[in-house]
Known about the structure:
The protein is an alpha/beta fold and 399 residues long.
Amino acid sequence: MHHATPPADALMWITDRPDVRFVRGDGSWLYDHTGRQYLDLVQGWAVNTLGHSPEEIRQALNEQSSRLINCSPAFHNECAIELARMLVQTSAFDRVFFANTGAEANEGAVKLARKWGARHRQGAYEVITFRNGFHGRSLAMMAASGKPQWEQLFEPKVPGFPKAQLGDIGSVERLIGASTVAVMLEPIQGESGVIEAGDDFLRALRRLTHERGLLLIVDEVQTGVARTGRLYGYEHAGIEPDIMTLAKGLGGGVPLAALLAREHCCVFEAGDQGGTFNGNALMTAVGAAVLRRASDPAFLAGVRARGEQFAAGLRAISQRQALGEVRGRGLLLALDLGCDRAAEVVEVAREQGLLINAPRPGVLRFMPALNIRADEVDLGLQRLESALRQVMSRAMLVV
Ligand SMILES: *Cc1c(COP(=O)(O)O)cnc(C)c1O
């Protein structure tokens, strides 16, 4: 136990956290209050696109903070205008609304769809979402999410989010009725253990929503901004959704989110949507710095190369240690252990200087900085294998 810093008991308890306080980050590395060094493959939960404290973000923060931080959402600022233009130019969408979190951007997407339904679909308001999906922690987004543990939580639920089965187009068709206005999904379900919707399924959904006159909303809070090796995850399927949300990777570590929509669904009227901090100059200046780097074709090629290296290493480990499937795309990867020991592996790995995440009891998830170096990927794989060996041999002893 460390007593060099005061206890954290003034923080509201929401979950158990390890007795480690991080004081400094640099690229793929984090340093705790005792000076210990960790290779970080969590990166703020797929947030730190360019790693910890990258030059691009420090420079954007320094320059913009001495110029203009926030001029209120009632006025335009140049940073928000510029970032919106960059997002529009690099995507299938025409307009952008900035927000601060993924949940807030998704709320905006659902509000936009409901408004569009009120105007064009006789008041249709239901948004079909998917079992095991994750869209955030506001009351409406908890209802939109398909997390089994949330089914009985914070009742009553916000209505209007019937659940289909990912990969099963028939399950979507069966839910479509007069009240349906949109279908919303993650191209890869991140929190539920890196489960891909699949390109064929995304194309089938696009076809179905076109035929039925519904909107297709992609929640790219986790998959967007180069995470999968393309700037946006929907690109792999060659489709053009109607609405997209971004958050996590867009700010590269600062709170920044975006709701993007094609022209035909931009139906907000004055007073429908807003937010105090939305599109402030400081955060959007950072977003522009991150997107400038992440949209560079050489950067994207690097993400794909590191992703292939990482996935190949995971498959080799899985084979050597008789574990399960390796899933994901680019640098959003998961290793299925085939047994519920992921939390133990996370703990042992941390003791060995490696930070990883277990989104489910039997699944490890990896979401490193997108500019992680090849030698850092190799080191991560080495430390992972050693942690897995230790936990799995412990498991044998218990048997
Ligand atoms: C993290 C996440 C969210 C919620 O984002 P917050 O910024 O935590 O509100 C929504 N959707 C997906 C796919 C996510 O991964």
